[in-house]
Amino acid sequence: MTVRVRLAPSPTGTLHIGTARTAVFNWLFARHHGGEFLLRIEDTDRERSRPAFTADILDGLAWLGLNWDAEPVIQSERIEEHRRAISQLLEAGLAYRCYASEAELEQMRERQKASGSAPRHDNRHRHLSGEQEQAFIAEGREAVVRFRIDDGASIGWSDLVRGEMRWSGSDLGGDMVIARRAPADRIGDPLYNLVVVVDDAAMAISHVIRGEDHIANTAKQLLLYEALGLPLPVFAHTPLILNPEGRKLSKRDGVTSVGEFRTMGYTAEALVNYMTLLGWSPPEGMAERFTLPQAAEAFSFERVNRAGARFDWDKLNWLNAQVLHELAPAELRQALVPLWQAEGWQAPGEEGSGDGGREAWELALAELLGPSLITLNDGLEQARPFFVRPDLDAGASQQLEVEGATAALTALLERLQDGGLSTEGAQALLAEAAKAAGVKKGVLMKSLRAALLGSLQGPDLITTWLLLHSSGEDRTRLMLAVAPA
Ligand code: GLU
User: Topology of domain 1-68+239-326, per CATH?
Assistant: First the structure.
């Protein structure tokens, strides 16, 4: 069997982490089997669907590296086919028009509530006579189309994640609406369960892989496959993503869209790696840090857990740091420069002038910061004092008050020359200045860090100094540090 899977996002919001994780599992399964990963944009909710959301979803999937194999199918363009399927069901007597008004349905729900019974449709118009229908039409009533769900039906399937599943028709809420309310000579807008079945069959989808919140829909959809005489796909229902407290991840948890993770400085590589681990455990011997192709090779539903997967920021951060630390300095520079530019920060030196040029400086800064980065945005914050003169924090101010600090920095300033400075040269200057001022070299180094970065924390001191030296910024900051307050 050729594996053909699909992601069917509704463009009613930006790319949600849950949808993206469903995409990951679909993609991995397709790639593992040399099959196809397809997209269908489920835009039949006209009120809430927006082209901008479709663009965000496609952009997010592409960014994550989840490439798809054909032009996305646009569900709203297939509405005539959906209507034909509904006509087929009406003609076969498997669906019927229901004229119950909203007010009547409301009354029914109230009664059920009052008597403490579960809410379900009572199938009141399942067996209307021709005259009764004519009477409703004459009253000017509109109708929905309902698909018959027999209480006695027993629906089963073998789920790739959850194993043998069985549902009773009586648990599906009564006859299901498959077309919205419309004048009785028309078929209103077709609804989700119907269109999904028609489209999945038309796209020859072999495996439907989606979140477990769709399990009850699957039971209903299986009845529709049967009624329409369509071949069945295999189903796999993936566990939900839970927040760190174990409840379903929701908007209230703050970050839920892929774009937000991206803005926070997470890399696509780390995010897809992390999403794969949200529900899938790699086989024994396989590390938790892997690329998409590596995961595709190892992927199977046998290692997808049934239990919901708790979101773990520490693990995502750990993976993101791994990815950043694996980058070559040139790649890291490429990732960081746009962030620096967006702040209006410009590196010293001429563009394209080799060793002493701007690129070399940016590369050196990227290499300096690289090992301490967890997110790319850390590479923004930690780069700030290299572009913007910092204020002194409390620790730095105290350090500059230490006995001998000013004398040593002054001695250093006196020896500082414009033009090239090497690591060895810098070390020698430190030793000379400390000796001349009669302080330990350690005191001078700590004071130099305070003067240059406004803080006692930061990356390697000598490299920091050399970078700030290329624009003469070291001299300015030293002068400010020794100037009487
Ligand atoms: N549009 C549905 C959703 O976003 C698709 C569900 C499915 O995969 O069938 O939840």
Answer: Rossmann fold (3.40.50)
